[in-house]
Structures are given as C-alpha cells and as structure tokens.
User: Which sequence fits this backbone?
C-alpha cells in the first residue's frame, strides 16, 4: 500500500493541494474520461478511430502505473518519466478525440490540465527532495 509517512515528510512544491482533494478530483476526471470515450465510440465518423483507442489505452496504462511508481516504489524520477509519457499520449488522445467529436475532445481538457499540473508537482517533488 501507499506509504503516507514518506509522502507526508516530502517537501511539497508550491500549490500542492491537500490530500483530500485528490480522491474526488480523480473520480470526476475518470468519469470525464469514460464520457469522452463513449462519445468518441458512438460518434459516426469517417476518421479512423483505432489510433485514438491506442492513445487512450496507453495513457490509461501510464496513469495507473504512476501511483505505484511514486508511492509504492518511492521513485520520483521513474514517476516523472511515466507522467511525461502520459502527458504526451493524453495530448495525442485529445487531438484524435477532437477530430471525431468536438464534445469528446472538449470533455478531456480538464483531464489534460490536471495531469499537466500533476507533472509540475512531480517535477517539484523531484527538485525539492
């Protein structure tokens, strides 16, 4: 499980939210990811959707890999590498989803902003600790 003592003892970057913010934020963001995926899937389009699905799966895999790298392995550098790759695939996913459905792409914008903010935090943790 996650070592909260380790995390609590880290020097936190400026703008680090309190711990209670993360669970509701992620519930909302995962709901928006699901909504965007559904809209992307059901939208009739002549645009090839396979690439968008690949980007979705890759960024979700990286999303799920980040927490164990950061909290379980306590490897801030590895977590940073993971989140940078996640940023790249999430932005590529956003572009593909937006080509098929403007609404699906728009729904992903808060997710992209959040993970870019998380990248800032990850960099801050690395530099400060």
Assistant:
């Amino acid at each position: 499980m996650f070592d909260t003592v380790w995390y609590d003892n880290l020097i936190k970057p400026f703008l680090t939210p309190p711990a209670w913010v993360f669970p509701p934020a992620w519930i909302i963001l995962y709901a928006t990811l699901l909504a965007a995926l559904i809209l992307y899937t059901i939208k009739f389009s002549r645009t090839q959707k396979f690439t968008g699905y690949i980007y979705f799966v890759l960024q979700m895999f990286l999303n799920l890999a980040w927490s164990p790298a950061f909290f379980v392995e306590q490897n801030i550098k590895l977590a940073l590498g993971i989140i940078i790759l996640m940023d790249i695939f999430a932005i590529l996913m956003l572009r593909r989803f937006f080509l098929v459905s403007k609404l699906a792409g728009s729904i992903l914008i808060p997710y992209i902003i959040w993970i870019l903010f998380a990248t800032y935090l990850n960099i801050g943790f690395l530099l400060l600790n």
User: Anything to note?
Assistant: The radius of gyration is 16 Å. Helices lie at 4-9, 22-42, 50-72, 76-100, 102-107, 109-128. Residues 26-128 form one domain.
